[in-house]
Design brief:
With 203 residues, the chain is α/β, with parallel strands linked by helices. The protein has helices spanning 5-15, 35-40, 46-50, 63-71, 97-103, 139-149, 196-202; strands spanning 53-56, 75-79, 86-89, 105-107, 118-121, 125-127, 132-133, 158-162, 168-169, 185-187, 192-194. A hairpin with a 4-residue loop joins strand 6 and strand 7 (132-133).
């Protein structure tokens, strides 16, 4: 039993080291060997195939996912580093932050008439109930809250997390706060896991 979210983070950052890719995992959403394969599995989700707009955090392991979204002719909404604004990318590239800034168009969320079909994030840890732990900055939950407040996210939005198997736990609910947003689907390099929250939300 972990005593805190911090303890979970420390555990994962140590455990994932042999599987990590640049940049080093400590203090970050870890980038890992197989992240590209995990992102490719997005295309296996019916919800993704039907989606028109996908939001992606700027996390390193999501790089291939951002490329896929544009390859598939969908719109990509991204957040700038440190939550300094939002960009809509409809063509070009968005794998790296540099690409996002080059090809993305800065948008005022109040003026956007879109629905985010999939909300995509990385994680430090996630459990099979849908509880996610980030790196501790709170950005992920704030991004979700802002998009929901602006009416761009609804109960039909699918919350997807890309993770290495070592980041997945049975139950972290005893560590969670009331404001923590639950994940619907976890994608790893070799499988898609629908969480308990998915079945509650979409039954």
């Amino acid at each position: 039993m972990f005593k805190s979210k911090r303890e979970v983070r420390e555990y994962v950052w140590r455990a994932i080291k042999p599987y990590s890719k640049f940049p080093p995992p400590y203090g970050r959403i870890p980038n890992f060997i197989g992240a590209e394969e995990a992102c490719e599995k997005l295309r296996e989700l019916e919800e993704y195939r039907n989606a028109k707009v996908i939001f992606s955090a700027p996390d390193s392991p999501l790089r291939r996912a951002r490329e896929i979204v544009l390859e598939d002719g969908k719109k990509l909404l991204v957040v700038k580093p440190k939550m300094t604004g939002f960009l809509l990318v409809e063509r070009g590239k968005a794998g790296t932050i540099k690409d996002m800034l080059k090809y993305g168009k800065e948008v005022d969320l109040n003026d956007l008439n879109i629905h985010v079909d999939i909300f995509l994030q990385g994680c430090v840890a996630v459990d099979k109930k849908g509880n996610r732990i980030g790196k501790g900055s709170g950005f992920g939950d704030r991004e979700y809250a802002i998009l929901k407040e602006k009416g761009l996210i609804s109960d039909k939005t699918l919350y997807v997390v890309v993770a290495h198997p070592i980041q997945i736990f049975e139950d972290l609910s005893y560590l969670m706060d009331e404001h923590d947003v639950k994940v619907d689907v976890i994608i790893t390099p070799d499988k898609i896991v629908k969480t308990e929250n998915y079945f509650r939300k979409f039954r």
